[in-house]
Structure formats: structure tokens, C-alpha cells
Amino acid sequence: MTSREAPEADMLPGLRAAVDDAKAKAAATRRRRAAAWEPAETDPVARVLVDVALAHLDRPFDYAVPRAMADTAVPGARVKVRFAGQDVDGYVVARGAESDHTGRLQPLRRVVSPEPVLAPEIAALSETLARRYAGARSDVLRLAVPPRHAATEKAPSPPAPALTPRPPTTWTEVEHADAFLRRLAARGSPRAVWSAAPADDWPAMLAEAVAATYAGGRGALVCVPDRRDVARLDAALTALLGEGHHVTLGADGGPAARYRDFLAVSRGARRVVVGTRSAAFAPVHDLGLVVVWDDGDDLHAEPRAPYPHTREVLLARAEQQGTAALVGGVARTPEAQQLLATGWAHELAVPREVLRRRVRVEAVPAEDRSVGTRIPRPAYDAIRRGLTTGPVLVQTPRAGYAASLACDTCRAPARCSVCTGPLAMAGPAVPPQCRWCGHAKSPWACPTCGGHGLRAPVRGEARTAEELGRMFPGTTVRSSSGDRVVDRVGERADLVVATVGAEPVAEAGYAAVVVLDTWLSLARDDLRAAEEALRRWLNAAALVRAGGQVVAVGDPAHPALQALVRWDPAGFARREAEERALAHLPPAARLATVTGDIGALDDVLHLLDLPEGAEVLGPVPAGDEHRVLLRVPRVAGEALSGALGDLQRIRSARKLEPVRVQVDPLSV
Predict the structure, then answer these.
(1) For residue range 129-177, what is the model confidence (pLDDT) as tens digits?
(2) What pLDDT is stored for residue 4 in this prediction?
(3) pLDDT value at position 167?
(4) Which of 62, 135, 314, 619 is 20 to 30 A from 593 in CA distance terms?
(5) Rounded distance, CA 426 to CA 631, Å?
(6) Residue 452's pLDDT band (boundaries 50, 70, 90)?
(7) Count of CB atoms situated within 10 Å of the CB of 484
(8) 3-state SS track over 96-165
(9) For residue 337, what is the enclosing H or E element?
(10) Taking 70 as the threshold, does the pLDDT of residue 456 lie above it?
(11) Which is it for the CA torsion 301, 302, 308, 314, positive or negative?
């Protein structure tokens, strides 16, 4: 041992002793502080939902309430608790006098905020949804309660001004609507599925349904697919109710604005809420009406665990809280049709003669694409006539210029010589470029026939706008797609070319609507391809003005196009539901997918206690993982969810490799 090493070795025992002494003092301080607190005199036990996403720990835990926190640890408040050796967040869901726990309860560490942000009905809803989707309540609560913003929480929420009721004027042609609105105003709980007609001002109609509920002294909650729909409904409510009666819940305003509006609802200062899917959990006081608009839009499907659908969240609230419910849209989903078939809801729709007066729809076959145009003569004539009286909308399913290219001689797909990826063109003066590696290929030669010409079998809105500009010289052509979405257009005779979901609203409606390339929408490899295609076409066609014309270019014999021509979303939904029932598909059956590594799926199939009549399909590859599909009759859906919940708790307790469970996925 050197002279330098000897002193260090002599110091080590002293350092260890100092560390041990410090630890002992800290432990003694903790014990002294723990012994010093006194429990609250009233309801000294707090039941806390701990923010731990472990399925086997997904239940409330009892903690002692110190006297110093007796007034702030109220049900719904955020707290810090000691759990598994660390401080974690949680919500107080209840206070009580006794606990089932036989040992000594740990005290609450601190009350983060005395603001009761978790309403009792939302706490109960989280349990219902966690059971329904085989998930954890903590995951549901992350969707339901926005993050805290301390500065915003200190500000008060001013009450809403007095309301001046107005009689409804936009529902006059809808059968049974008068009785529905009267029941809303009388604090009843009617439930309806509403099919909006072409030229309907659906934001104004929803605003009147909300106003009838609000005038009866109850709150209302409306969920729509995206921010553009939120803006339209926000404007309609402001025009009908005035300023200060409702809030919009969304992420556009930032965390402070969202939390401010959430607190206004939680405190009862606002009782009318409009928003996207996260608004379905808004703690509206004395809730009287829940509304979901366009429930077939995939934006209503939550992409985060436990993957609830807005429609199911709102229907669960309607059942739990005894509220009125309205499922509305231009199109109708088989799930909405199921509500009518079971008698859970009644239908609201305009008579057939009103539809005939509102719009004329025809489907025309596409001309031979080899001649260089995909706009047949009837569509051209409809555009020409429409431009004499107002704007005309042309819907195309693809954005960009030329989404794919092919040889002009042999029709073989044009591929990149570097990575064999598909070639595309971003503009008329831009050389072909690979969509995978970005390699620009000019000049190009077909490896099959040696040809040098290229054609675009699939054309985007930019190419469509270019073609229409040449066909109608002197007409202003406007494009709306991607990050260049136009919200509104005036009454000028402009040609508006838009992709699906980006169609602007015309102030007085469109004189004509043309739907191009319907075969592309129908070619999707998905269970809901025809349903989704019809929804897209109907949403565009509904923007027409009363007495306008709609032309769809495609196979007139296809059932979806026939439903569009007859404007019969109800009949199409009924037929879809019947066909799916024969094939044992939703909504007649309940499905669940389990995704993970093949070894983990093997464990799942051994541990899962499936209900009688269940079918196991798979496993099959799903990207880098594998997937198993579970199917049961609809009556056994609750048993399937329960079995999957038990599976997740067993796997969590045993610390097995996690798998992703989705109950009733939107697509399979």
C-alpha cells in the first residue's frame, strides 16, 4: 500500500459511518413527522385513484387524511400519495369514515390543488369505459382531465349572462322534430338518430336543439370531428345564444385556454360545450343532452389507450346520467342504424318529397381514360350550368398533382430504377420523382416496352384544377387540400376543387357538386370502404343549395352510388347491417384485437378465458408484430371485455410482456 492509499483507506469507515448516521436521522425524522400528524375529525379516509397504468392495480386505494388537509382533500381534488416507494399523482374519488384496510393507512403526502376537477359522474364513466375497452382507469382519466395550469386556476370563472329563448325555425321540415325539441325543453330524455338533408344548415339546427335543452335549465354537450366543424357550430351558438353561454374545448388555444374553459364547465359557469373527441368527458353540470355529429368520421376514434370511440362515450353517458341523446350526420353508420333497430332511439328525417325538391343526383359512368379526360359530358354540363348561377364544387379523392404514374404505351406502373418505388409528379414542370427515396428520374424509359411517355392514372386536386382551368377558360379555379384548406367561399361563380374533408362551405350553397373518381374511394381494402365512400360523397353533396344538382362519376350500378342517387343513407346502413350480421361482423358481433410478439400472443391464448361461442382468428402478421382477432356474438360482448380485462390484470401482475388490446377497433 502506498502512502497516498493509506489515508484514503483510513477515511472510508468514517465516511460510511457518516452516511449511515445521516440515513438514520432522516428515517427518524420521517417517523417523527408521520407520528405527529393527526387524522381529520370528519371522514378521515380518502379513496384515491392512483395514476399508475398497471392493470392489476387499477382500483382506488385508501389513504388517511391529515387534519391539515381536511378541507382541501375534497372528492375530485388532485393529490400526491406515496405508492410503491415513490410519490405519484392521484385523484380523491371519495371520503369516508372507515376503511376495509386492516393495517395502518399511509397519510396523503399533499394536496396538489383543492379544485375538484374530477366530477363524480366522470369518475364513474372512467370505470365503465375501462371495463368496456379492457383498459385502465388512469388512461381514461388522462383523456378526461386536462393538465393543470396553476395561474389559470387562481382566476374566477364569471357566470353566464341571462338567456333570451327563441323559437326553433330550422327543424320545420323534419318529421317528429317538433316533439323532440319540446321534450328537450321540458327536461325530457328523448333519443334520436337524425339524417340531415342536402342544403340543411346543420350547425344552426344543432344550436337550436342545444338552445331548447339550455332553456329548460340543463346543459348540453356536442362533439364534432374537427376544428372546422367546431368553428361552424361555435358561430351558430353565438348567433343564437349570444356571447358567454358556451365554451369550445380543443387544443387550438393552448393549455391555458383549454384549462380555463374546462374550469368554467367544471365550476358550472358554462353548461354548453362544443368540441372534438376529448370534449366527450366534459363535466357539464346537470347534463341534459349529448350530441355526436358525423359519427362515421374516423377522427372520432381515440388513437390512445384504451381507444374509446366518441359515440360510445356519449351513449354511455346518456345511459349513466339519463340524458337525451342525438346521433346526427348526413350519412348513417350501421351502428346508428342498430340504435334504431333495437328501439333505443327514434328516427328524425325529412320526407321523401322534400329530398326530391332539395336536390337532383345522378351517377354517370366515367369515359375511357385513354382519351385523356375523366370528366364525362354530363359532369361537364353540370359544371357549365352551375357556373351561370354560383360556385361549383368538384371533389376529388387524391391530393397533389399526379399521385402515381404509368407508361403511356403499355400501362405498366412507372417505378424508380434505384429502389423500385412508385414515381409521382408534384407539378406540371417537375420531373418524375420517387415517393420512397426521392430520386428524380428524367428522362424515363419503360423497362417493359421501352416507351418514354408517362400518363397519370390517378390524378390529384392540383392536376384536376389544371384540367378544369383549361376546360373553362376565364373561370377562377380554387384548390383546397392538405395544409391549404379554404374554410368558406362566397357567391362568386368560382370552380372549387377540394379533397375529401377539405370542402369549403359556400355562403349560399353550391349551384352544383361533382364527385370524381368514385372508384378510388371504393377500392380501399377495408371493411368500411363502401360505407366510408358514401359518407364522403354525401358530405360533399350536402353542401349544394336547394334545387342544385349533384353528379357522381363512377359505376352507376354500385350499391353505394345507387344510395347516393336515391339519397338513401338509411337504406344503405340497413343493408350494410344485415350483410354484416350474416358475416358475423360488427355491429351484430363484437370484435377485439390483441397485438404483440408471437410469443406473447401464445401466452395470451393460453391465459384467456373466452366466453362461449368465441372465435379466435390468427395470429397473422401485423407489421413487425402479430395480431389475433377475437369475435363473439353481440350479447357476449360484455363477457369478452371482462375476459380481456382479467387477462390484462394477470399479465400485469406476473410482469409478462405487454400486448395491445383494442375492443371494437374502427378497422381490422
Answers:
(1) 999 999 999 999 999 999 999 999 999 999 998 888 788 789 999 999 9
(2) 46
(3) 81
(4) 314
(5) 44
(6) confident
(7) 11
(8) ECCCCCCCCCCECCEEEECCCCCCHHHHHHHHHHHHHCCCCHHHHHHHHCCCCCHHHHHCCCCCCCCCCC
(9) helix 334-341
(10) no
(11) negative
Contact 79, 73 (CB under 8 A): yes
> How far, in Å, are 128, 138, 301 from residue 123 at the CA level?
9, 10, 21
HSE toward the beta carbon, residue 607, CA cutoff 13 A: 20
The letter for the amino acid at 200 is D
C-alpha cell belonging to residue 138: 388512469
Contact status, residue 455 vs residue 479, Cβ threshold 8 Å: no
| Residue 626 to residues 515, 591, 641, Cα–Cα distance (Å) | 38, 16, 20
SS3 of residue 648 by DSSP: helix
pLDDT at residue 377 is higher than 50: yes
Closest CA to 206 of 253, 299, 272: 272
Q: How far apart are CA 331 and CA 25, in angstroms?
A: 70
In this predicted model, what pLDDT tens digit does every residue of 571-603 receive, in sequence order?
A: 999 999 999 999 898 999 999 999 999 998 998
Distance CA 138, CA 408 (A): 57
pLDDT at 44 exceeding the cut of 50: yes
Query: What pLDDT shows up at residue 427?
Result: 67
Task: Give the pLDDT score at 326.
Answer: 98
Average pLDDT, stretch 72-79?
A: 95
- The type of residue at 125 is L
Q: Provide DSSP, 469-492.
A: HHHSTT--EEEEBTTB---EE-SS
- Please give the distance of CA 571 from its chain centroid, rounded to a whole number: 25
What is the distance between the alpha carbons of residues 198 and 545, in angstroms, rounded to a whole number?
A: 8
The vertex-176 CA angle with 175 and 181, nearest 5°, equals 125
Please write the tens of the pLDDT for every residue from 92-111. 999 998 888 888 888 999 99
CA distance 145 to 287: 17
The reported pLDDT for the residue numbered 84 is 84
Average pLDDT, the chain: 88
CA dihedral sign of residues 70, 72, 76, 80: negative
Q: What is the pLDDT of residue 633?
A: 93
**Percentages helix, strand, coil for the chain, rounded to the nearest 5?**
35, 25, 40
- Which pLDDT does position 13 carry in this prediction? 63
Q: Which long-range contacts (CB under 8 A, 24 or more apart) does 315-321 make?
A: 315/290, 315/339, 316/125, 316/128, 316/129, 316/132, 317/121, 317/125, 317/221, 317/280, 317/287, 317/290, 318/189, 318/191, 318/290, 320/121, 320/124, 320/125, 320/128, 321/121, 321/287
Enumerate the β-bridge partners of residue 434: 423
Say how far apart CA 20 and CA 28 lie, in whole Å.
12
Please give the radius of gyration of the chain, using alpha carbons only, rounded to the nearest integer.
30
Bridge partners (DSSP) of residue 553 are 364
Reading the block at residue 475, the C-alpha cell is 373561370
Average pLDDT for 275-279: 94
Cell numbers found for residue 388: 351561370
